[in-house]
């Protein structure tokens, strides 16, 4: 049996208050580590929220201060952290911004993913990424399929990540009210149709213009909901057995029975 202990940290995010958010995240990460967590997932843009009023100040170049802090923490604690931040890249036309998903494994950024499907207002500020690839961990024989929020609505994203060998799907999100029922349905659907564990980490709390319902979830490869948060800040901890995925896929051969020649 191959088990890995996952912690999904559901937290409020104080808009544009980077240091405060990072301090809280580190406090909750330490709590998760005390419970034996090996892989820790934080919500989308956990350090700033969607800080449109100060994009230059909230954004960082890849390898900036936030990722350096988390790299040091993961190296010291021997863990893995997954989330996203606002990234900036300089070009001839000025700064470009991306929603940068990242996976930091024992002090090393083992992979990044720029959100390929910005949602509504995000399109005014963020450039879309142009690549969807899973992330291989270095300290464990595991591959992570990372997607970001709105991409739950695009089954092609999780299907591609699954077919490319992901051992689990991870969704980091700021899914707002009133879409709680949609969130829960989509999270389970992505796990069921790909027969793969799914860790979906949403934020809670509120911004000036919207509020969030939390409801972070961990779903196993059979589609069973094994952990679910309410609206409060919380930490979900669960041991995922990655060998169960192959058992589920042998019992119901949905992936093998696909007809890609027809669709």
From TrEMBL:
SUPFAM superfamilies: Carbon-nitrogen hydrolase
Keyword Hydrolase appears in the UniProt entry: yes
Residues in CN hydrolase domain copies: 4-242
Keywords noted in UniProt: Hydrolase
Entry keyword Hydrolase: yes
GO molecular function terms attached to this record: hydrolase activity
Designated name of the protein: Carbon-nitrogen family hydrolase
